Amino acid sequence: DSSEPVIGLRDVTRRFGAKVALDRVSLSVPRGVVFGLVGANGAGKTTLIRHVLGLLKAQTGSVRVFGANPVADPAGVLARIGYLSEENDLPGWMRVPEFVRYSRAFYPRWDDGYAEELRHTFELPAGTRICNLSKGQRARVGLLVALAHRPELLVLDEPSSGLDPLVRRDILEAVIRTIADEGRTVLFSSHLLDEVERVSDHVCLLNQGRIVFSAPLDELKESHRSLTVRFDAP
Ligand code: ATP
């Protein structure tokens, strides 16, 4: 069903001990949209994303991804998602082609030709161990693996932390736009509002586990001033 949202959260609350990481979060991400999630460190972005991936189970409320509960069928859901984590923890002893071969085992719809094309586009050397690549190169390896099975949903958790502005613009923004132009969906998190604004169709601000603003980009721009003040307050 193409009218069904790709991601739907309803009243999701998540506690870690006394800490409320997500507080009655509801959101809906339609197909083909770039959905930007903005928030300071600790706002709950990663926790939200981990619910979408089925890595965390909702304590209350419901999570739907492609119409299903990701906890009930994590493998089925994950096969349709490309995911780049904030840590981007890669095996340093492998060379890029080895890591590509390793990663393809997890994705039934892996596209070898496209993976090799991305390796060239991202200018990733074949003969170097991952531990000897720069942080930016490692981010591109992570992105390659997230893209090579042509996921219906691309989830990027603060992907630009290690990237210089040029790489950000040339690679990250281009990748995100291409995916959206093809009618696929992107969930993109960052602590930088301007970065999210540049690529997103819809912006959602998280503050201490709560959604404080969620609207299409144009509405965000209108209320920009008051929001910035609110967002930057300690
Ligand atoms: P960052 O940019 O630092 O990754 P974030 O917006 O992704 O921030 P989360 O990582 O989702 O934020 O964390 C939200 C809150 O929940 C934080 O206060 C964090 O300390 C807490 N938290 C997250 N995971 C756990 C956990 N496994 N155990 C205890 N507390 C946790």
TrEMBL record:
Residues 7-233 form the ABC transporter domain. It comes from the Bacteria. GO terms for molecular function: ATP binding; ATP hydrolysis activity. The keyword Transport applies. Keywords: ATP-binding, Nucleotide-binding, Transport. This is ABC transporter, ATP-binding protein. The lineage of its organism: Bacteria, Pseudomonadati, Planctomycetota, Planctomycetia, Gemmatales. The chain holds residues 7 to 240 of 308 of the full protein.
